[in-house]
């Protein structure tokens, strides 16, 4: 649900703290069998928040040392932000937010007119390029991992983001490899859910339901994306009634329950298939908690 105006800072923030936002949706691994080392636990939300805050503060310190200002980005970009990978299924949220257009607009305005936007707008093209190199590294080289969806993903090992990983997790290469793998597996899970016969059967019932209510669509995510792409008062006036119809039909037809059940099932399957990545990431996270507490403690108000 993030738009272009915020993409630079938000994506840099997510990169700085690895997959902390994405992995919060993964539940704990099952216990290991007899004679096996117990798998690492999934961190609690408060612990993920701590790691994110510490990572952002380390990036801020690094950028300041390189002559640039940096404003830490929150792990959750807006108090009402929600991610609906299979379409909006919360009726109350839909009544308040529609498809989240107001949240998008607020975040876009903040990105443009807030301190980050004002700072960037005051930099020359050369300084902007230097800022990007200081933050992300001069090129995407040094850290590399195979993308579970195909191909290879890479990241610089020389910018402030990589420096924060080394300070917090010790092994930047292992952290990037494991956390980026887990992050990318979210798309694998969503794809499997969407292709499951049970989901597709429920989807047909949902499509019939919203069609009867005057909002014909084949898939809730496409319906949401197409609606948010429309602009103007007439389009925006349809946001709430369309989103409410989407959510109510997801509930009444069983699409929401089917998606949630499949989401849990494929989560367990994918964790089992990629246990090494999950275990490595979680062990690094748990080991980083004392360092994160120290970092936050020495940054009053951090």
Automatic annotation (TrEMBL):
Judging by the UniProt lineage, the source's domain of life is: Bacteria
Keyword Signal annotated:
yes
Keywords, A to Z?
Signal
Per the UniProt entry, the signal peptide is: 1-24
Provide the protein name.
Secreted protein
């Amino acid at each position: 649900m993030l738009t272009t105006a915020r993409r630079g800072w938000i994506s840099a923030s997510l990169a700085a703290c690895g997959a902390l936002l994405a992995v919060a949706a993964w539940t704990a691994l099952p216990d290991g069998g007899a004679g096996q080392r117990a798998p690492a636990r999934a961190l609690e939300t408060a612990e993920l928040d701590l790691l994110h805050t510490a990572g952002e503060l380390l990036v801020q310190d690094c950028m300041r040392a390189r002559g640039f200002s940096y404003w830490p980005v929150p792990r959750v970009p807006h108090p009402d932000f929600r991610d609906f990978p299979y379409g909006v299924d919360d009726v109350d949220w839909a009544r308040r937010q529609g498809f989240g257009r107001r949240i998008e607009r607020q975040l876009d305005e903040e990105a443009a007119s807030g301190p980050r936007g004002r700072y960037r707008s005051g930099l020359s093209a050369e300084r902007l390029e230097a800022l990007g190199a200081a933050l992300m590294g001069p090129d995407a080289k040094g850290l590399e991992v195979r993308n579970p969806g195909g191909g290879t993903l890479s990241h610089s090992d020389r910018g402030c983001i990589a420096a924060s990983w080394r300070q917090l997790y010790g092994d930047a290469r292992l952290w990037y490899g494991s956390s980026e793998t887990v992050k990318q597996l979210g798309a694998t899970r969503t794809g499997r859910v969407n292709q499951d016969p049970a989901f597709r059967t429920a989807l047909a019932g949902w499509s019939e339901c919203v069609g009867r209510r005057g909002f014909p669509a084949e898939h809730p995510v496409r319906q949401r994306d197409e609606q948010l792409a429309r602009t103007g008062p007439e389009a925006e006036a349809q946001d709430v009634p369309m989103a409410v119809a989407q959510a109510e039909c997801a509930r009444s037809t069983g699409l929401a329950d089917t998606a949630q059940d499949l989401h849990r099932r494929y989560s367990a399957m994918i964790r089992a298939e990629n246990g090494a990545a999950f275990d490595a990431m979680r062990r690094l996270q748990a080991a980083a908690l004392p360092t994160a507490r120290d970092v936050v403690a020495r940054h009053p108000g951090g």
